[in-house]
Amino acid sequence: MNFDFDDTQYALRDMARDLFTKESPASRLREMWEGKPFDRRVWKTMAEAGICGLTVPEEFGGAGGTILDLTLVYEEAGRACLPEPLLETTGIAAPLIARFGSDVLKERWLPAIASGDAIAGIQEGDGSHVAGGAEADFIVAGRDDAIHIVDSGGFRASPVASLDQARPVARVECDTGFETRLVSTGDHDALTLFWGAAFTGAASILNGLAMQMRDMSVAYVTDRKQFGRPVGSFQAVKHKLASMHVAIESARPAAWYAAYALTESRDGATVDSAVAKIAANDAEALCNSEALQCHGGIGFTWEHDLHFWLKRGMALRGSFGTSAELRRNLTRVHDWDELL
């Protein structure tokens, strides 16, 4: 199978990379860590560039793209350690509402997502914490048997301390019932899309984080010298860099295929997505550790930017299932449907 992205998807990647680099540099992350609250300036800029509405149908002001179209954009979001809720809003909420929402839900939320006037929070289970919950306009709440769309009048968010202060987290209580259900029948298909989009999107962002940590490490060990030689010339350091690269280049195709399988509604797409999340979790964990080792003591200090990526990776690795949790679920699967 000759699998590759098309020219439009590569152009989207390049545009996203330029935008994220310009609008959300490491200095912005540092400001958020120092207490500057999240604002929507960058989110609105992303909307003007068409990124927020990428998966919103054209009749609602979007680009009519797919989850596969988002894949390379996710990687760039990971590279930039982007604080914006791209996965939650564009990757999960918009496709769910576009495919399963009522006309009322579509009219209310899809144009607002495309224009940058609405952001979503994702709750993985009843009572779980929500990234960006205090800033969200609505919550997509996953439950064992259904997906719920809860607007601002139906949930209460209380900010809590987070490992990553550029990714604020809140304890969210949602009022869910029959009236908030995304669909009254066919909930399984909605749950499949919910979890598949979450696994796949988180995997690609994790891969982007790992790529950036690898590149930062290469740059550091090339510049840093010991005994009159670049640290990167030592065999032990080369092995670490090679291990990082191999892990990343093994995890990325898993996420690419999972996004393709989900977009094409192929059998087993949810399992493919879970496997992609496991591979990305493990690749990021390796790169997290090795990047810190390559940077030495400066890597975890406040003065160096690396810790922003280290902590985002640790936070996202635990979202939508750790590797251990997903592996346990996969060992019990005898039929594709049983993963949900």
Structure notes:
The longest helix has 37 residues, at 187-223. The radius of gyration is 20 Å and the shape is globular. The protein is built from 11 helices and 8 strands. By secondary structure, the chain is mainly α. A 3-stranded mixed beta sheet has the order 1-3-4. The chain has a 3-stranded antiparallel beta sheet with strand order 2-6-5, with no helix packed on it. It folds into 2 domains: 7-180, Acyl-CoA dehydrogenase/oxidase, N-terminal domain (Butyryl-Coa Dehydrogenase, subunit A, domain 1, Orthogonal Bundle), CATH 1.10.540; 188-339, Butyryl-CoA Dehydrogenase, subunit A, domain 3 (Up-down Bundle), CATH 1.20.140. 56% of the residues lie in helices and 10% in strands. The two termini are 29 Å apart. The protein has helices spanning 7-23, 26-33, 41-48, 67-80, 86-100, 103-115, 187-223, 235-263, 269-295, 306-317, 323-331; strands spanning 120-123, 129-131, 138-142, 147-151, 155-160, 169-174, 225-226, 229-230.
Oligomer: single chain
Quick one: CATH class of the largest domain?
Mainly Alpha
Largest sheet: 3 strands, mixed
Distance between the amino and carboxyl termini = 29 Å
Number of domain units: 2
Class from secondary-structure proportions: mainly alpha
